[in-house]
Design goal:
Elements (H helix, E strand, L loop, with lengths): L1 H10 L5 H7 E2 L1 H7 L5 H8 L3 H13 L4 E4 L1 H4 L4 H15 L8 E4 L6 H6 L6 E2 L3 E2 L3 H11 L11 H7 L6 E5 L3 H4 L3 H9 L3 E6 L11 E4 L8 E4 L4 E5 L12 H11 L10 H11 L8 H5 L3 E2 L23 E2 L19
Parallel strand pairs: 1-12, 2-3, 6-7, 7-8
Antiparallel strand pairs: 4-5, 9-10, 10-11
Helix pairs in contact: 1-4, 1-5, 1-7, 4-5
Length: 344
């Protein structure tokens, strides 16, 4: 579908020539690449009439300001990365980036998915999207955290489950019912049962918590002080409305106390404020923020220095890493296709 739209936009000359020349690379190869992906070709695969593909492409391509909003239906496929890159291609070829009313805007599944990435909850980055493979970043965080850090990338959850019971003997799962969310429940259950020790932090006794050796009761969002960063990079204070029940504690408290019991240094936080201020001291995108500032306002990162008002739009004058790169995407079948036995 997206390749078909790109074909129409290129065919009708709706590309932003100046934007392509000034701010992108691989444009010539991309425009040649999409010639084969006609609306008729796309219609045979996605079952959307070719005239509607044409109409959608023309609406977007002719718009003075075109914004793309996508949800999990784009990403939760074997070709999820290709799907997102195809959306990026549409925005690049029409110059719909860096201006008000344009851009590529993911509508995330939870309120703090962006914030989780910001603080380094992905295996290849430190907080602030600083690559772990950069020796300068390694030295910076070794000094901040007072310990040697491996320069290699971490592993994904998928890979961790594959290694469970072999190279991984223990696991901590925080705030996810992995047994239900994983696409292969049987494989996931076998992996978790293969561990020597499983710890789960959660609000409820979920299916995954039922497999755990230890379950830490966590506080909910209305029972927790902290911050959240939404899909438009807006950093907001999260204020506790009611005390957590029983022995429930915030996630940061559970993780830091566990780390202290294991003998790790640098986890002597006394409140959420300490955690956020450490993030601001280490992340260039949060460098101009601290707890007191977000107590009285909301700011869209990057906020590179004290007093900076925040950045409502990214890429107004250019891309951080240079030029926008067109990706030559090709269609590939889903991992599981419908048939007579499984028609839906």
């Amino acid at each position: 579908l997206l390749l078909g739209m790109a074909h129409v936009i290129a065919r009708e000359g709706l590309i932003d020539e100046a934007f392509l020349a000034d701010r992108t690379t691989e444009a010539e190869a991309f425009l040649a690449h999409v010639k084969e992906f006609t609306p008729e070709w796309a219609s045979n695969i996605c079952d959307v009439p070719p005239e509607l593909i044409e109409q959608a492409a023309l609406l977007y391509g002719r718009a003075d300001r075109g914004a793309i909003y996508y949800t999990l239906g784009i990403t939760e496929h074997i070709c999820g990365v290709d799907n997102v890159q195809s959306l990026c291609n549409l925005a690049l070829m029409t110059g719909n980036i860096g201006r008000e009313g344009t851009g590529i805007n993911p509508m995330r599944g939870q309120n703090n998915i962006q914030g989780a990435g910001d603080v380094g909850a992905i295996p290849n980055n430190y907080p602030g999207f600083q690559p772990v493979t950069d020796p300068a970043n390694q030295a910076k965080f070794e000094e901040a955290w007072g310990r040697k850090i491996d320069i290699d990338k971490g592993i994904t959850k998928v890979r961790a489950l594959e290694l469970a019971g072999d190279k991984i003997r223990a696991m901590l799962i925080d705030g996810e019912n992995t047994l239900v969310t994983d696409p292969d429940r049987e494989h996931c259950e076998h992996a978790l049962k293969s561990l020597d020790f499983l710890v789960v932090c959660d609000l409820f006794m979920t299916e995954t918590a039922g497999l755990a050796d230890v379950v830490f009761p966590a506080s909910g969002f209305a029972e927790t002080d902290g911050t959240q960063t939404n899909t438009e990079r807006r950093v907001q204070r999260l204020r506790r409305a009611t005390p957590p029940p029983g022995e429930a504690k915030p996630d940061w408290w559970i993780v830091s106390r566990l780390a202290q019991r294991m003998g790790f240094q640098g986890f002597d936080y006394s409140e959420a404020k300490d955690v956020f201020n450490e993030l601001c001291s280490l992340s260039p995108t949060y460098a101009g923020l601290d707890w007191d500032r977000v107590e009285h306002g909301e700011y869209q990162w990057p906020v590179p220095e004290e007093g900076h008002p925040g950045t409502p739009r990214l890429h107004e004058d250019g891309f951080i890493n240079g030029r926008g790169i067109f990706k030559l995407i090709r269609y590939r079948d889903p991992a599981e296709t419908v048939d007579d036995e499984y028609p839906v």
